[in-house]
Design a protein that fits this description.
The complex is a heterodimer of chains A (276) and B (337). Chain A is of the alpha/beta class and 276 residues long. Chain A has nine helices and five strands, in the order αβββαββααααααα. Chain B has 337 residues and is of the alpha+beta class. In chain B, the strands form two sheets. Chain B has an eight-stranded mixed sheet with strand order 3-2-6-7-8-9-1-10. A four-stranded antiparallel sheet of chain B has the order 5-4-12-11, with no helix packed on it. Chain B folds into two domains: 189 residues, no CATH class; 129 residues, no CATH class. Classes of the chains: A alpha/beta (276), B alpha+beta (337). The interface between A and B is large, with 38 and 37 residues. Chain B: InterPro entries: 4Fe4S_Fe-S-bd, 4Fe4S_Fe_S_CS, Helical_ferredxn.
């Protein structure tokens, strides 16, 4: 049985038994090569679920839809390892209760989608630990290496150029499962903390503010870069922050739901190399 | 005999226009993202694109634009009015859907208030469009009563020659004629056959949609929630749309000096309709998506007798979760009445 068939029949089973009220997964999109999030609530609709290598969007953010989990019922969701990590971060930040979430885990290897064993966030500990180890040995991509080799001045002007295309549509924020604030700082207009204008300063403020806000929280799912209509490689900013956090604190966000957020916790042996 | 412009002469045309002090804009790509940019030669133009990622509207309605500056001193208050640049411009290689979109925006910006920021730029620009010989899955101009060779909103329409070596030229306005006059020696007479226009299938029944939308019974339909369930509420569809024109006026600065700016805004954002009381009449994303569709195909067409959509398809092409106007109207056309 293909992984798609496997999860379709599991979805049918869970929905028929009333174990879950909804399955959040992927379905066919507007063109043959597109996939889209679908919300399946009856067993008959489970055949709409699709799972293949084009299913890239991290769907965990949909779990935070207002009211979705407020009735204590369970929801199943298709998640990759990144997605499961974001689920853990959301739980650690008190945004959801993982006991209400059933995971349809999958990974993409080459030209195939493969199931990952487990059904509860806690079942994936070893998979996440392996991903953490793998990240350490993962080579940087070409653009990231180029950025590292730049002088701070060159790097600043690179990002200034990239941000100049930002149109302030906030697709990066909306696509990001970690951007769960009901009210974003840029939507606070009394006082207006951050310029809403899409000029050099406003674009720099927004994009750097978001990158800092994600330090130690980003699971590098890539939703931001995929959503950006201006093709700004936002994931590289977040990846750089993640490198820092992993190197300084050995912190890999989303290990489990008990993991303390790195920037909201204190240990006596935290390095303080940045304090002069 | 038709008037022809051969591709080999385009560079000289651009040089001629530039000699006359005109800025020349056209589709070009930087940083992997295409849009309308000032070009110095024909080689910088990207005329094979079906559509640029960003729209023509950016040349008339920038993402952010200063309107007014102030500086408060001990003895006096100084104010400064910012005006759009005066320079005349040729915008070459526009697609007919984008050109038609600018006419839609003209209606809005000349309604209860004549928006000088929009019209100064509009009045000093010549739009030279090129009929489409290619389309993609997202193009839907024909569903909006337009076509790949629509003349709406253009000053000149170029029809690609079958041989691919130039265009047949048609002036549509006086402004267009003037722009052609300055390159007249570079235009030839001839009877070269033109390429067929792109095949863009009609995707929905616009009139059926309009009558459904106009029925107040459907305002609270479950349909809105179902169709917009996956919408994440980003503004990319509105910002990439040629006819979306909402803006916000923001003051940036402090008590002593600052600038008042006109910035893009989007009905997709929760803050868009937030009242000072904290109440939001469009509290959910489905209400915001409904507003977007209603505005484009019901309110706007009732008020201005034109749909606020020209079928460019960018809303769907770039949507991170594969939403779009096409699918919504397709679904509406098939709803039970």
């Amino acid at each position: 049985m293909s992984i798609q068939e496997h999860y379709r029949s599991r979805a049918k089973e869970l929905l028929s038994a009333g174990t879950v009220k909804m399955v959040i997964g992927y379905g066919a999109g507007s063109t043959p090569d597109r996939r889209r999030p679908v919300f399946i609530t009856s067993p008959d609709e489970a055949d709409r679920l699709v799972l293949d290598t084009t299913c890239r969007t991290n769907l965990s953010g949909y779990l935070l839809r207002e009211g979705l989990l407020s009735d204590q019922k369970q929801v199943a969701v298709f998640l990759t390892v990144d997605g499961i990590r974001s689920l853990n971060v959301l739980a650690a930040e008190s945004q959801l209760d993982t006991s209400q979430v059933l995971v349809f885990g999958f990974g993409i290897e080459g030209d195939q989608a493969r199931a990952i064993e487990g059904e509860r966030a806690a079942d994936f500990k070893s998979v996440i630990a392996a991903a953490k180890e793998q990240r350490k040995s993962q080579p940087a991509d070409e653009l990231q290496e180029k950025l590292e080799a730049m002088t701070p001045k060159e790097r600043f002007s690179f990002w200034e150029g990239e941000f100049s295309r930002c149109i302030k549509c906030y697709a990066c924020r909306q696509a990001c499962p970690m951007c769960w604030c009901r009210r974003c700082v840029v939507d606070n207009n009394q006082p207006q903390w951050v310029n809403t204008s899409s000029h050099t300063l406003g674009n720099l403020e927004w994009n750097l503010l978001r990158a800092f806000h994600l330090a130690g929280r980003c699971v590098e799912c890539g939703n931001c870069s995929r959503a950006c209509p201006a093709d700004i490689p936002l994931h590289l900013l977040n990846r750089r922050m993640a490198d820092e956090v992993q190197a300084s604190f050995d912190h890999y966000p989303g290990m489990d739901e008990a993991q303390e957020p790195v920037l909201a916790s204190f240990r006596k042996d935290d390095p303080e190399t940045f304090i002069l | 005999m038709a008037t022809l412009l051969y591709s080999a002469n385009l560079n000289d045309c651009i040089a001629r226009w530039r000699e006359e002090g005109l800025m020349v804009f056209g589709p070009a790509t930087t940083g992997g993202v295409s849009g309308f940019q000032e070009v110095k030669d024909a080689g910088s133009l990207d005329l094979d694109l079906i559509l640029t990622r960003s729209t023509l509207k950016e040349l008339f309605f920038p993402r952010t634009e200063p309107m007014l500056g102030y500086r408060i001193g001990k003895q006096q208050i100084e104010t400064e009015e910012f005006r759009p640049p005066e320079g005349r411009r040729i915008i070459f290689g526009v697609r007919p859907c984008d050109a038609a979109g600018m006419q839609v925006d003209d209606a809005l910006f000349d309604w209860d208030y004549h928006d000088e920021y929009w019209f100064r730029r509009r009045d000093s620009s010549v739009i030279v469009s090129i009929a489409c010989t290619h389309a993609d899955d997202f193009c839907m101009c024909t569903s909006l009563n337009l076509s790949p060779d629509s003349t709406k909103g253009s000053d000149v329409l170029l029809r690609p020659l079958l041989a691919g070596n130039g265009w047949q030229v048609e002036a549509l306005t006086e402004r267009g004629e003037n722009a052609l006059a300055s390159i007249s020696s570079l235009l030839k007479e001839g009877g070269d056959p033109t390429a067929p226009v792109a095949d863009v299938p009609v995707k929905f029944d616009l009139e059926a949609c309009r009558s459904w939308l106009a029925d107040p019974e459907n305002f609270e339909s479950r349909f809105w929630k179902e169709i917009s369930e996956r919408c994440i509420g980003c503004g990319s569809c509105t910002y990439l749309c040629p006819t979306c024109h909402c803006f916000d006026i923001q003051d940036e600065g402090d008590t002593y000096k600052g600038i008042r700016r006109k910035n893009w805004d989007s009905c997709s954002f929760s803050l868009f309709t937030m009242h000072t009381s904290g109440h939001n009449p469009r509290a959910t994303q489905s209400a915001r998506w409904r507003q977007r569709i209603m505005h484009k195909f019901n309110y706007f067409s009732l008020k201005f007798n034109v749909n606020s959509c020209t079928g460019c398809g960018r809303c769907t092409r770039e949507c991170p979760v594969d939403m779009g106007v096409t699918e919504t109207l397709q679904a509406i056309s098939t709803l039970q009445r």
